[in-house]
Amino acid sequence: MKTFNDIKWKTHQLGKGYIQGLISLDSGAELSIVAGKGLYSLPREAGNSHEDFNKFEVLIFNEKENEPLGWQSRKDIDNLIKLHN
User: Fold this and answer.
1) Which of 74, 37, 45, 38 is closest to 23 using CA atoms?
2) If both were cysteines, with which of 14, 16, 21, 65 could 33 make a disulfide (CB 3.0 to 4.6 Å apart)?
3) Is the dihedral of CA 70, 73, 78, 83 positive or negative?
4) Which residues of 57-76 are buried (b: 16+ CB within 10 A; e: fewer)?
C-alpha cells in the first residue's frame, strides 16, 4: 500500500519556497500535497523540501471531492491515502 513516503516532490509552480507532492492511487484518485508561505501548512513559511514542514495542505481529486484540507500531518495523509486507495 502506498504511504506518505511514496509521494513524488517538486517545486510548486508558485516558485522557490513552495513545494508540491503528487500521488496517484489505485482507485483513480490523485492527491496534491502542498506547503509554503501562506498555504494551509506548518510552518507557514517558505521551505525547500517536505522535510521543512510538519503539516501540509491536501487536495483530493476524484469524482466526489476537490476541497482543500489544511494542516494535515504525515499520519493524516497516510490515512487519506488508505481511505481513497
Assistant:
1) 74
2) 21
3) negative
4) bbebeeeeeeeebeebebee
Q: What is the pLDDT of residues 1-47, one digit of tens each?
A: 899 999 999 999 999 999 999 999 999 999 999 999 999 999 999 99
Q: Residue 50 pLDDT > 80, yes or no?
A: yes
Instruction: Measure the CA–CA gap between 53 and 1, rounded to whole angstroms.
Output: 23
Q: Name the pTM for this structure.
A: 0.92
Q: How many Cβ atoms are within 10 Å of 56's Cβ, its own excluded?
A: 29
497516510: which residue's cell? 78
**Rg (alpha carbons) of the chain, rounded to whole number:** 12
